[in-house]
Amino acid sequence: MSCALRGANPICRNKPGSDLASRISAHHCFDFRSCTGGAVSPKSPRLSTLGAGLDIACGLLPWLAFSDALSRGTNSLIEHSLYLRKLAIPEEVYIAKSVAASSIYFAILLCFLVILAACDGRSPGILLILLPVISALLLLVAFGVALTLAPLNVLMRDIGQTLPLLLQLGMWLSPILYPAELMPYGIGILQKFNPFSPFLAAFRSVVVDNQIPESGVWLAMVAWAIGTCAIGAVFIQRLRPEVRGLSLMVTPAIVARGLCKRFRIYDGSVERVRGALFRSKGFFEP
Question: With contact defined as beta carbons under 8 Å apart, do 201 and 218 qualify?
Fold first, then answer.
């Protein structure tokens, strides 16, 4: 192999160390092809112009939208703590509002995904109508998980700080940036308990394979959406008194800092705003 590479490459011919360089080149080429298998092979029927880029985009872009929706929903009760203590609006409304706000971001990512598919010469056609349905089910999963994490984030603020790290770990534990065949046996079994796995298969089936997802994939997506929402509803119902009780513990200093930040007051008026709020009758009454 080294002689063939040395003969095909005139740069390496008759130079000291060229035999070693050709061996290293052949070794890296063999390792790359053996690691990636058929996922990035030019002869793979799943890939064409963009190579593995479209296959990765089908997993990475929905994951970014899912992470954004989950992060917004988890922090929603803290962001709306002032409204929680003054308005008799259920906590689920604030969480749903925050998750729904990320749907615009999801729509932009879906448009970008369709453009990538068009540049790759793929035209799903009528199957494109399945993308909003799959996206809506994925947002329902994010809403259900946020129903569980949002009240916990009120009780333990470390959850909101740990969530980005857990989302990064979840991305690497999901076959998004690499083929599923490369996953170790133990982690591969855990994919059955990964809520993102059926959605990943559905997006790749529609965009890359130009096929309708299998019935098992649809059942898994619907089951994850219903299951997470049901568990989250029970969870937030149990923690509702604690969440409401903590939302009443809003001091004038916290409100003053929030108002000064909202209206960009940086001239040292925090103490004056705090004093005015403290003297205001009925502002801090339940």
Answer: no
Instruction: Pull the structure tokens for residue 222.
Output: 């619907």
DSSP string computed for 7-35:
HH-TTTTT-TTHHHHHHHHHHHHHHHHHH
Cα–Cα separations (whole angstroms), residue 107 to 38, 64, 179, 222, 275: 31, 12, 26, 20, 45
**What dihedral do alpha carbons 86, 104, 64, 262 form, nearest 10°?**
-40
Distance CA 72, CA 25 (A): 47
Tell me the whole-structure pTM to 2 decimals: 0.69
Helix spans in 156-269 (H): 158-173, 185-190, 197-207, 215-247, 252-262
User: What is the DSSP-derived secondary structure letter of residue 213?
Assistant: P
C-alpha gyration radius of the chain: 26
What token pair was written down for 152? 């916990």
Question: Distance between CA 171 and CA 160 in Å, rounded?
Answer: 18
Give burial (CB, 10 Å; 0-12/13-18/19+) of 22: buried
Q: What separation in angstroms does the CA of 162 have from each of 64, 79, 166, 231?
A: 17, 17, 6, 21
What secondary structure letter does DSSP report for 181?
Answer: G
Cβ count near 164 (within 10 Å): 11
Question: Tell me, what's the pLDDT at 107?
Answer: 94
pLDDT tens, 251-281? 444 555 555 555 555 555 545 555 554 444 4
